[in-house]
Amino acid sequence: MAIIITEINIYPIKSLGGISLQTAEVEDRGLQYDRRWVLADGGNIFMTQRENEQMALIEVSIESDGLKVSHRKKDIAPLKVPFEPETNDNRMITIWDDVVRAIRVNDEADAWFTEVLGKETHLYYQPDDSIRLTDPKYSITHEEHTSFSDAYPVLIIGQSSLDFLNEKLEEKMEMKRFRPNLVFSGGEPHDEDNFRYFQVGEARLVGVKLCARCVLTTINPETAERGKEPLKTLTQYRRNGSKILFGQNLLVVEKGKIALGDEIILEI
């Protein structure tokens, strides 16, 4: 059975709404525009839905001159975010165990997010010359790097894996709960666990580490409400030690264009 790409998603501003694409450019640090922006508090610590679930209600779209950011429920005018920062304010942003140089975008963005989220918030962009290396324990060349993703450039999940989970849930969930970059049809549940090197479109990728899931998956992206699922059910059959695993993290071996309908060609 052919393994076919059915979804391509990016999340330009970390932990905000995603964007579904027909095609994408795979770059060294992941899909173009994916998590190149991050929100940080007054102490330069990155922010996610883990601490503020209201971030789930902020939507992002790409326009010709930058991003458009809007709130699904609050009566506030949309924010335009330029592709290039409008300040020279370089800061070191702490994201998990890493410290990453980034540039503050502008005062307008800071004011918009501060008002929407109810606390001091700044929007930062990771420039091309800011390199955040991936974990050397799961590296191929020790030169792979990523953006403001949690740890790796690309995340892939099979549709069969979600279908298998949904068979066990009282309330079905959409794939957006898990924020993958790539989704594919074909194969058995969790086949992605065994993906190693593969070709898709012009790009070549390699699976290096299963993705450990956190409480962010329990936040409904439509309502920002927290629950117990899917972690409660996944614990029953996807637990490995203290980790609950769902999806495979990928490194970029060769860059290039990918598109919906591309076949994943696994290397034996």
UniProtKB/TrEMBL annotation:
Q: What GO annotations for molecular function exist for this entry?
A: catalytic activity; molybdenum ion binding; pyridoxal phosphate binding
Q: Which residues form the MOSC domain?
A: 126-267
Provide the coiled-coil residue spans: none
Annotated Pfam families: MOSC, MOSC_N
- InterPro entries per the UniProt record, alphabetical: MoCF_Sase_C (IPR005302), MOCOS_middle (IPR005303), Pyrv_Knase-like_insert_dom_sf (IPR011037)
Under what name is this protein listed?
A: MOSC domain-containing protein
Q: Which organism is it from?
A: Emticicia agri
